[in-house]
């Protein structure tokens, strides 16, 4: 069953934001974090499809500027009442009889409904506020410690300028129900064998969203060097912090960040996947036990977001600066030990695919990360990868809605709202059907689905099959467990 909070957010944005400027809040627990004047951080993406989440840094603009007059309260730009209710029912029957008096019959019915009514308002920081603040207030010196950390990681900083906020408490109700029945009659030598079965499953979810909760927000990028400013018109080429000349990558419009090939839709996606698979094949040169250790530790990192981000930042820094990295603790340190020489220098051909994998995993939703951690334990990754790729292939070129049939062989032991594969796809904003197994493809699902597929690509190369003609060596013997071909 989809998230009740996400359904409310989606409904509100659909009514109030035709241009797509508002950014939805991903969960109810984060609905108090994105206040006007709050500062957020976000990593630069190495893939068109990695939509990194904005993260609160527990700062507002007043925390990084010299003291001055209090910030004006945001203006209310309008209040709207939204009522959203839907009720649907689908039924089907089947019967088969023969001249020999045997009979098989079945029926199925599915229904669903949701309802919510809410009063929301849009709060906006007046544009003149930014002009006055920029003229009268300067950055604190020395620079705030959190800004220093974000600068070292190369992350951009944003400021919340507009929010969509509930004015009153909102009650949301979701109901899903399924019924099924079956009958059969089989003639025997002396009598007729008959049977009948019925089943019913109903789920009801109720969520209360408190008054004052933030459903969506809009941001503007903050510039720090050489003096502070705010970009009210988006510009992806500008960075919050001025980078050293040695770290700058050429910013060419419509060029893939990592591969340097002109972007042309799904054809370039295929090139990206081929690049990742070619790079990931180097992982086959690790000893089998080291590959299994990598899988286990990556599974642990999926439940430990701070350590996963620390490892990704360490690998990215090492790849940019020539390979030297500092040791890390926990599962992040365990992964890093498999990728470095005794001197602490990264083996680049191994670090590249792991760095890419971590970037893709970080771009997933928290629900997807937890499900992938479970899939690593149950060895379901290969089937899930094949299913995701098949959906992407059958829905090409992705710009038009379509229905994609799903093969039963790739769905595992179950295919319903509780099945892990179902939830993985549902998190990509796809609409799913139980019988027959189908996916309703929507153009807006392109990004989340491609991000999901990219998070799978490197992992099959860490499975336990021993590669042919390869001998793995431990880190303390000849480096990071890199195998040598005989």
Key structural traits:
single chain, 486 residues, alpha+beta, 2 domains, ten-stranded antiparallel β-sheet, three-stranded antiparallel β-sheet, 31% helix, disordered C terminus
Topology of helices and strands:
Layout: H1 4-16, E1 23-24, E2 38-42, E3 55-60, E4 75-97, E5 103-124, H2 127-136, H3 145-153, E6 156-166, E7 170-187, E8 192-209, E9 214-223, E10 229-231, H4 266-280, H5 288-301, H6 305-321, H7 330-337, H8 348-362, H9 366-378, H10 381-394, E11 402-405, H11 420-426, E12 431-433, E13 438-441, H12 446-456, E14 470-471, H13 475-478, E15 484-485
Antiparallel strand pairs: 1-9, 2-3, 2-6, 4-5, 5-6, 5-7, 6-9, 7-8, 9-10, 11-13, 12-13, 14-15
Helix pairs in contact: 4-8, 5-7, 5-9, 6-7, 6-8, 8-12, 9-11, 10-12
Percentage of residues in strands: 25-35%
Distance between the ends:
53 Å
Give start-end ranges of low-pLDDT stretches. Answer: 246-264, 465-486
Structural class by helix and strand composition = alpha+beta
What is the subunit organization of this protein? single chain
Radius of gyration: 27 Å
Shape: flat
Please give the largest β-sheet: 10 strands, antiparallel
Compute the average pLDDT. 79
List the secondary-structure elements in sequence, H or E: HEEEEEHHEEEEEHHHHHHHEHEEHEHE
Work out the helix count: 13
Helix content: 25-40%
